[in-house]
Design a protein that fits this description.
3 domains, two-stranded parallel ribbon, transmembrane, Myo_ane_neurotoxin_sf, alpha+beta, Big defensin 1, YefM-like fold, Anthopleurin-A, 130 residues, 4-stranded antiparallel sheet
């Protein structure tokens, strides 16, 4: 019985001792990861007046704070249903037979089949549907 308890004690020591070593190692890994994430962000002045994605916004709040973002007028992009219309949606659609616009001209019709590529705009094709 004495041999069994001795082996159990050694086994417990071997199981518990690496925990403190692993905890210190994990702390160092987390510190270096946080430093790399902070270095990946540009200086806050480069984001002035922009609308950024949610993960970038959260990282900026973590690094610089909410007041700094308010002061530099940095906003978080809303979800896709409340997207702000912008010029980057203006491009060709319907296999180059139409154009993405906020509203179609009187001589154009909205092609609802090819409308997905236009984002918040409409796919306008020449001619009257009818």
């Amino acid at each position: 019985m004495e041999r069994k308890s001795f082996l159990s004690a050694i086994f417990i020591v071997l199981l518990v001792s690496p925990a403190s070593i692993m905890a210190k190692t994990l702390e160092k890994v987390n510190e270096t990861r946080n430093k790399r994430q902070a270095q990946a962000l540009l200086p806050i002045a480069s984001y002035a007046g922009l609308t950024v994605s949610a993960p970038v916004f959260a990282a900026l709040v973590t690094v610089y704070g909410a007041y700094a973002l308010y002061r530099y007028n940095i906003r978080r992009r809303e979800n896709s249903y409340q997207r702000i219309r912008s010029d980057h949606d203006s491009h060709s659609c319907a296999n180059n037979r139409g154009w993405c616009r906020p509203t179609c001209f009187s001589h154009e019709y909205t092609d609802w089949f090819n409308n997905d590529v236009c984002g918040s705009y409409r796919c306008c094709r020449p001619g009257r549907r009818g």
